[in-house]
Amino acid sequence: MKLKQTLLFAAFSVFLFSCVSSKKFKAAQAKIDSLTAANAKLAGDLKNCNDLTSQDASQKTALQNQIDALNKQIDFLKQNHDATLKQLQDLSVISGSQAESIKKSLDNIGAKDNYIQNLQNELAHKDSLNMALVMNLKGAIGNMDDKDINIKVDKGVVYIDISDKLLFKSGSYDVNEAAKTVLGKVATVLKAQPDIEFMVEGHTDNKNYSRPPHLLDNWDLSVKRATSVVRILQKQYGLDPAHITAAGRGEFVPVSANDTEDGRAANRRTRIVILPQLDQFFKLLEKK
Q: Please, what's the b/e burial string for 137-160 (b: 16 or more CB within 10 A of its CB; e: otherwise)?
């Protein structure tokens, strides 16, 4: 019995010791696990710290580069500022010494602008008078074939083209009786404006109409045709000869090619040119 009790006590002691050792082991294991976790966290913190240090170094380098670039820009701007300041100083000296001259120049520019505006107004007025003259001429002549008579304005000048078929026989400079009626209608319109000056031009094609001794060449024919028309306008219709010019242009100012009959017919013409009133224009120039 005693032996049995002893054995039970021994077994209980072993079991108790075993339980105590297991608790210590678990506690130690827990401590180890805690220390391991703490170590891992410290290692991570150390790595992050190292990474941040590396990033800070890179950022510091980038910032320094930006600072250097900005400093260069500041130096450049300072140099430009100094140069601009010097130019302004020089300009202020010039402006101060020539202020009155500049003022006079500005005044002259204003006067020139007014002068140019007046010229433009006069030119516009002249254009309107030319258009009125054309309308009067067309109204006086009536519905004639444009191939025989054409009235137009070109670059501010009025032209009246009359075909030689209407005025003359081939190679002749005697005006047809029927054509005198047309010249009379033109003369009526021109006579209503006594200040008008005009030129009568004779034109031929390139065929030779020389018939010595009366016609030497196409120059001679074109001049004689022009003077024939001028005499009728002066003597029969009373236009002032002081306002008339007679001119021959020969074959040298064609309006069409001379290689067809229609082209040659267009070139054989008498042209009345209403001359610009240059004296009035020069008076405008003198007013400046």
A: beebbeeeeeebbbbeeeeeebbb
Distance of CA 108 to the CA centre of its chain: 27
Eight-class DSSP state of 236:
I
C-alpha span between 43 and 38 (Å, rounded): 8
Token reading at 15: 């079991």
Report d(CA 285, CA 288) in Å as an integer.
6
**How close are the terminal C-alpha atoms of the chain, in Å?**
157
Q: Answer left, alpha or beta for residue 171, where phi above 0 means left and psi between -120 and 50 means alpha.
A: left
User: Which residues are paired to 154 by β-bridges?
Assistant: 157
Please list, residue by residue across 84-112, b when 16 or more beta carbons sit within 10 angstroms of its beta carbon and e when fewer do.
eeeeeeeeeeeeeeeeeeeeeeeeeeeee
| Beta bridge mates, 264 | none
> Is there a cis peptide before residue 213, judged by omega within 30 degrees of 0?
yes
pTM over 0.85: no
Name the residue among 205, 250, 200, 204 with its Cα closest to residue 229.
200
pLDDT band, residue 273 (cuts 50/70/90): very high
CA 169 to chain centre: 52
Report d(CA 40, CA 32) in Å as an integer.
12
Instruction: Indicate the pLDDT class of residue 16, thresholds 50, 70 and 90.
Output: very low
Look up residue 75 and give its amino acid: D
What is the arithmetic mean of pLDDT over 11-38? 57
DSSP state of 262: H
CA dist., res. 149 & res. 179, Å (int): 11
